[in-house]
Design a protein that fits this description.
Elements: H1 16-28, H2 37-46, H3 53-86
């Protein structure tokens, strides 16, 4: 019997609303978010984001993902520049 396996390399599906709200918040508060979920969750609660707890957690998770990917991209650029300087 063949069983279907979930692909672990695919990204999570998020609604357009979560993405839109997250990007607007990052633009409005660019230096307030950190790569830690709990910090971002508390920050969203402090600014008084008027959404449900479940939605707030999804937004905090997506913001965390974006911040981490930005930091990773910056680190890769810095490493590439350092490598070019050596050569």
């Amino acid at each position: 019997m063949i069983t279907a396996h979930r692909c672990t390399y695919l990204g999570k599906v998020r609604t357009e609303m979560i993405k839109r709200i997250s990007l607007e918040l990052i633009e409005r508060y660019p230096y307030s978010f950190q790569p830690e979920f709990d910090h971002n969750k508390l920050f969203l609660k402090e600014i008084g984001l008027d959404v449900s707890k479940k939605l707030r957690n999804k937004i905090a998770g997506y913001v965390t993902t974006i911040v981490k990917s930005d930091l990773l991209a910056e680190a890769k650029e810095a490493a590439q520049e350092a490598l070019e300087e050596i050569q």
